[in-house]
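FAQ: What does the model actually see?

It sees only this:
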Amino acid sequence: MSRDEASQTAERVARESYGRLVAYLAARTRDVAGAEDALAEAFATALRMWPAEGVPQNPDAWLLTVARRRQTDAVRRRHTRTAGEAHLQLMADEIDDAAQNPDEIPDRRLALMFACAHPAIERGMRAPLILQTILGLTAQDIASAFLISPATMGQRLVRAKGRIKDAGIPFNIPDREALPERLDAVLEAIYAAYAKGWGEIDGAGAPLADEAIWLGRLVVSLLPTEPEAKGMLALMLYTEARRAARRDEAGAYVPLEQQNTAHWDDWQIDMAETLLREANAGGPSGRYQIEAAIQSAHVARRRDNAPTWPAIVALYDHLYGLTGSPVVALNRAAAYAELEGPDAALALLDTLAADKRMADYQPYWAARGHLAALAGRKDDAHQALILAIGLSSDEAVRQYLHKQLEALQDG
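And it is asked to produce this:
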């Protein structure tokens, strides 16, 4: 096997099994950073050995065994040979048994997610910590989703992992009394992972989006009476139903308003509608239920020509009252333009300009460029579109914005 083939296999295993293996390795020691380090060394060893020796029949079991050895060696270096030996042997035996029966490796991901959402962890770091430990996202990837610098995010993640170990936070699903606060962070992390996977429209993000939906289904199955869990899963399914319509046959980006609804996945939409109805019947509406309701309104507007813009704006008003999020304010302004025109929407965007996070937030400049063009403000539109193009990481989106810019110059 070539090095490239071995690398591709290791990358595939990492995507599919990273979070499951980290969660299992960390369950005994509470040392998430140590589990990540051990697994990273196991992957590095795989890249050295697999090209020469071939990929093992069960890569997960191989990686688990190698990572266990690195992990126990690291623990031994921190403890005396006698004081921790019994614990080390118990941990080694348990992981060896799991490696021999990889199909029976307990999936501790949900337990690790709730450990990362423990009240002992800084509130703002709970969701980012889940994203890194469960899905293996880098600090840079996570920082962009939470509008924080990568260096700051990296430092906070290190501290949060240390907190799990130092506080001896257990890996379990909390009692119902403690569930609401911790569930919020779990849902936020799952949806942030989905949003990242959805945003990468070149196809690379699809596995991450699929993983997020799987985790959403897992949470709903374990907590079937939690309305917000169903609301979040519905939101992801509404969005995922449009994946095939986001590009035309030439691969060009297609915005929601121009998508061919015949390419939408009716099964996923129907499932989302069912989940949303169940969520709304289960309790007061939270963030994800409201966002799912907005997507439901878009479906009704595009498929059935229903006049839902007033309802969409009202839902964004309610959502902003709950979250105070500048992203929600941005989306509300775009919807407001459909009712009151682009000038009124631009006035709303002006109130966001003072938020420093908007300076390098691509959707802000793309929306501003579009609205300014509609309002006939060519200079403002040109400047905003240039910034949006520069901040776009996807070539298809850049080409779409270039076409808007060309239409502006030709008009």
